[in-house]
Amino acid sequence: MTEFTLYDETNAPEESRILLSQSKKGFGMVPGLHAVMAEAPGLLEAYKIVHELFANSSFDKDEITVVWQTVNVENACHYCVPAHTGIAKSMGVSDAITDALRNETPLPNAKLQALRDFTLSVIRDRGNVADDKVQAFLDAGFTKRNILEVVLGYSQKIMSNYTNHLAHTPVDKAFEKFAWEKGGTPAAA
Fold first, then answer.
1. Which of 114, 94, 85, 50 is nearest to 175 (CA)?
2. Distance between alpha carbon 87 and the CA centroid of its chain, in Å?
């Protein structure tokens, strides 16, 4: 297994140091994902920009969480599922939504379920989503803008999920209590 360095703002490549300082200021720590991504400053910068863009999309906090966790769970990301469980809690997302996403059980309302279903179609069909699935998403109350914002959220999560798979990023201490395994018995959220 290839070992990746967990950088901080003192030992990272020069171009990543300010980005890690910003992460530490914003989170009170350098998240493990950012510490690994610092190896490639362009990836870390792109991830942070896309994260900000998606977080400021037209989706509300519940919908943002549905897209993030749907991708994380589908891609079996050992790091992102616990991290986004903690993030969802800090955003005030209900445990019912979080638990349904983590456990791959039905969501508490039809609109959120339509968002999960559409996001899964984007992932599984590699963007070649059938017209009837697109129409079902629109009929659930979403817009063409939302279709493209799912692509934006998916793009963000590909950067993090794949980095974590390749680097075996350790889950941050703050999120260890939300440990998760695909198809396993999830930790209490």
1. 85
2. 10
pLDDT digits (tens, 9 = 90+) for 35-61: 999 999 999 999 999 999 999 999 999
* C-alpha span between 179 and 171 (Å, rounded): 8
| pLDDT band at residue 186 under the 50/70/90 scheme | very low
The residue among 158, 147, 140 whose CA lies nearest residue 58 is 147
d(CA 88, CA 95): 9
In the structure, what pLDDT confidence band is assigned to residue 105 with cuts at 50, 70 and 90?
very high
CATH class of domain segment(s) 14-178: mainly alpha
Please, are residues 63 and 155 in contact by the beta-carbon 8 Å criterion?
no
Residue whose C-alpha is closest to residue 23's, from 45, 50, 55, 53: 45
* Structure tokens, 169: 């990023």
170 and 83 in contact (C-beta within 8 Å)?
no
Q: Which residues contact 97 (CB under 8 A, 6 or more apart)?
A: 62, 65, 66, 88, 107, 108, 112
| Residue 121: C-alpha distances to residues 37, 154, 184 (Å) | 28, 11, 23
Domain regions of the chain by residue span: 14-178
The pTM assigned to this predicted structure is: 0.94
Q: Give the pLDDT of residue 187.
A: 44
